[in-house]
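S1.2 Input.
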Amino acid sequence: MSVAEQIPGYDVPAVEAWISRHVPALRLPLRWTRLEGGHSNLTYMLQDAAGKRAVIRRPPLGELLPKAHDMAREWALISALGPTPVPVPEAMGFCEDPAVTGAKFYVMGHVDGHPLYNAADTRKYVPENKRVAMAHSFFDALADLHALDPDEIGLSDLGKKEDYVGRQVKTWYRSWTASIEPAQYDDPRAHALHDFLLAHTPDQGPARVVHGDYGLHNVLIGKSGLVEAVVDWEISTLGDPLADLAYALNVWPDPTDAEPPAETAATSPPGFPSRTELAQRYAARTGRDLSKLDFYVGFNRWKSACIVHGVYARYMAGQKSSDGVDLVGLRASIDRSLDLAQAAIDRL
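S1.3 Output.
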């Protein structure tokens, strides 16, 4: 089997020829190693003749949704954020010509770190005595991102600046209503929460870059136990930073919670600060008023219910194979998200 046949999605000779012309920091030949994760994007570590490491990334094979797996967006983000306090991999080269290997791709610096997907990852990569510092590092990076003016760093055209939450609510409500029939499942709370969220959306304030999926699965934790890089920027846009914060806070436990986090959750091992402490740290670092944070918590929980409802609908309609899928558990997670959304709204 040739090297090219072993690397799905990449015409290796063509890509390496492009790299030799546009990424002078790398010396051919390159050794390719598949990296897991990354929302099914085809992501490989490259090691050059001198041992220098980099990462190459392109969309998955097959037909894609129009805005999915946007390599140009990711490249724009890491390029713009490189000189800022937000930790991102080095931007090394972007190929916008799909003729080279069938899709746009980019090359970024390799960061020696690990995402945390579950409790086992946390125990492996973050000793208990480093967990407070790690949690602080995680929220400090988000605060640093939200401190940046997108106009000043060349990201003013990343998305619409106004009414981020309102636009999101309308989009995901369309998903919920379109999924009712194939899911054979509806819940009046989804509609009532939609109406409440639209009627009570707080004033947004200046738009900031929002990551959109800021979690421990999308950062790289180094040997120091700190965040060395934030990755997977493909759904980032401009919007309300408090929506980003509430999403990031959702997985962190707090003594006020009715039940502890799942034992498998990355934040379930002992030694982490509480969710309340972390929110207060973010507020102190940014100066933002968090008095309406529960609105954003409710919004994110409601949005999660809509997303899972759409997935459940596709299974129920036979559009995706449900072999091995816990459909009862999936439906229960919709109910739980609506429970949590309603509880957050009730706290306002």
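S1.4 Remarks. The beta strands are 31-34, 42-47, 53-58, 91-95, 105-109, 208-210, 219-221, 227-230, 237-239.
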